Amino acid sequence: xxxxxxxxxxxxxxxxxxxxxxxxxxQANEMEDETKAYQKTLNKMxxxxxxxNVFTGINKEIxxxxxxxxxxxxxxxxxxxxxxxRHWTAIKEALKQDFTVEDDMKLKMFWKMNIYEAKQREExxxxxxxxxxxxxIDQNLQxxxxxxxxxxxxxxxxxxxxxxxxxxxxxxxxxxxLEEH
Length: 181
What we know:
By secondary structure, the chain is mainly α.
């Protein structure tokens, strides 16, 4: 049982440290890996009553963190940063909270909002997925625009019975590239 209490102390100290971290310093994936290791150690403990309040309490807290950290990782995705701030506005509306995303905001702010709970988690996942999809679309549009900007058209006169009209012609290689998009 002493091993369990030592582990709980270690885990809670680490989680307290996480809560004090500033947004700019958060490495959610590394933190998640560390938290998974804590859970693995907890589950491997022998001679511990896994139905005890002590065990179930720390296990629940670790599971909450394992739901929380992937959300933080998603919210830190570069796709969330857009000029009109629409994705963060959607998150604020979903959480019914008003805050400003700044480098020095603490992780504790999101923890206190219980974003690891099912309803908030689903809403955040939807918003971050939408942000990533929009980013992909924007990148594809930029690539297509770049390709079209590079296309050189040539004016070619076309002789018809009714007279001559000017048409646009482009290089066959460029036609193939543009057809791919």
